[in-house]
Backbone:
């Protein structure tokens, strides 16, 4: 019987999580602009890595 109780609570929490995720999706649309800014920062980091690489290649020969 306790096992059955556990299964039921797990199912309910899973349902509650699914409902919460749907509400968060609306908020994510607004947060997408912030994520795009983060992607731009990642591109800058990639550029610095390329700069670092070219500096390294310059020193290697």
Residues:
């Amino acid at each position: 019987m306790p096992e059955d109780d556990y299964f039921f609570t797990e199912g309910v929490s899973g349902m509650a999580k699914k409902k919460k995720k749907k509400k968060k999706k609306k908020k994510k649309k607004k947060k997408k602009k912030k994520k795009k800014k983060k992607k731009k920062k990642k591109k800058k980091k990639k550029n610095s890595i390329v700069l670092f690489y070219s500096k390294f290649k310059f020193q290697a020969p």
Notes: DSSP finds one helix and no strands in the chain.
